Amino acid sequence: MMNVNTEKCIGCGLCVKDCFVRDIEMVDGKAKIKNEACFKCGHCVAICPKEAVSTDDYNMEEVKAYNKDEFEIEPERLLNFIKFRRTVRQFQAKDIEIEKLNKIIDAGRFTQTGSNAQNVSYVVVRENLNKLKALAFEGLSNYGKYMLNNLTPETAHFKRYAEMWIQMNEEFKADNTKDKLFFNAPAVVLVLSESEVNGALASSNMELMVDALGLGTFFSGFFVRAAQGNKEIMELLGINEGQKIVTCMVIGYPAVKYSRTVPRKDAVVSWK
């Protein structure tokens, strides 16, 4: 429930104007939240100049007042940070601190979601990583064999992936350090959501936090493919039926150093 402290409220009406669902009204010169259409987006908390708005549902101690020195990022610096981001597949044999993993999760947690659904959750895999690898390699190999046995002219271009998955599994079974799935990274973070858009948005912000923490990551589409319909993987991860793995972030300390950004295609933009 959203609440207004009438002793603090000065009746400025800023929260009324900024409430998208029109759930706030002025009563006797004070803001009153009806809590009928409210979906707890928090705009009223953020805009109030007197800290008069709070909620019983979330931890209000997380709220921070704006401070230019702590919050502002120069646009060119941000763009350079994004340009310098690289997909990393070479990792050091070094564990990631829990504090850093929690910051990565927080970057996802505070990402916007449609209608403030906040329907994104996370699975962090560290201790069971070897078990997960074995199941994923086996799953990819089985799917690869199925594909090879059922190739059509329309699916012929998938042949190289099928052969690759089978070979990856054979190499891993012969030597479990030959890991071409997670590349011996110390942690995997799975982003789950019923909304692919919400999960992808969270993942993008999480990737930026990974880089800011001096870590590296890549998104493993192979693992997402391996997990689809695989009951053993879902049971190991404790993922309920109906939950969907949107992304798989493989994370570790980079064992590679890049010296510059890279070029990209020109943007395709239509100005109307």
Tally of contiguous helical segments: 10
The name of the CATH superfamily of the largest domain reads NADH Oxidase
End-to-end C-alpha gap? 43 Å
Radius of gyration: 23 Å
Query: Residue-averaged pLDDT, rounded?
Result: 97
Strand order of the largest sheet: 5-6-8-7
As residue ranges, the low-confidence spans are none
Shape: elongated
List key phrases describing it.
NADH Oxidase, 8 strands, Alpha-Beta Plaits, 4-stranded antiparallel sheet, alpha+beta, 272 residues, two-stranded antiparallel sheet
Give a description of the structure.
This protein is α+β, with helices and mostly antiparallel strands. It folds into 2 domains: 2-62, Alpha-Beta Plaits (2-Layer Sandwich); 86-272, NADH Oxidase, CATH 3.40.109.10. The chain is built from 10 helices and 8 strands. Helix 5 crosses helix 8, helix 6 crosses helix 9 (221-227) and helix 6 runs antiparallel to helix 10. The chain starts with a strand and ends in a 20-residue tail after the last strand. The model has no long low-confidence stretch (mean pLDDT 97). It comes from Clostridium fungisolvens.
Write the layout of secondary structure elements.
Elements: E1 2-4, H1 14-18, E2 24-27, E3 30-33, H2 43-47, E4 53-55, H3 68-71, H4 75-84, H5 98-109, E5 120-125, H6 129-149, H7 159-174, E6 187-193, H8 196-212, E7 216-219, H9 221-227, H10 231-237, E8 245-252
Antiparallel strand pairs: 1-4, 2-3, 5-6, 6-8, 7-8
Helix pairs in contact: 5-8, 6-7, 6-9, 6-10
